[in-house]
Amino acid sequence: MSEDDEIKPKDVPEATILFVDDDYLIAMSTVDMLEDLGHRVIEASSAQEALAILESGEHVDAIVTDHAMPGMTGAELAERARQLRPNIPILLATGYAELPPGVSSTLPRLGKPYQQRDLSAKLAGLLPKKSPDRSHSQ
């Protein structure tokens, strides 16, 4: 990716992101990255907690979830989340080169470990593009 092609934080629309990871250190680091990009972050430490947030009616623009979590994987969470909110963008973060059989290959993936620019670029591809009218910005 050339410097001209690089996604800059200002190119990614501000959004409310539901971030799901059972690893406290990864969660802390990623939440910092997301907030630095201008996003509002709702944290969940399990897929079950994330589903409860979605069921509560809380506004969420996209989900970024770890894949390997106890109880319910990120791919299983994605399937359940889409039952509640069919059009919600979901990004699956995983350190695995290959996902197990049966996991949807259509889920956008973010390889671990990742940097802020990787996260920003993936979100830019998932979220609706920013409007040129910035009069509603803070």
Automatic annotation (TrEMBL):
Alphabetical keyword list: Phosphoprotein, Transcription, Transcription regulation
SUPFAM superfamilies: CheY-like
One GO process term, biological-process aspect: phosphorelay signal transduction system
Domain Response regulatory residue range list: 16-127
UniProt key word RNA-binding: no
Protein name: Response regulator
Positions carrying 4-aspartylphosphate: D66
Any Pfam family the entry gives: Response_reg
Keyword Transferase attached: no
Top-rank lineage group of the source organism: Bacteria
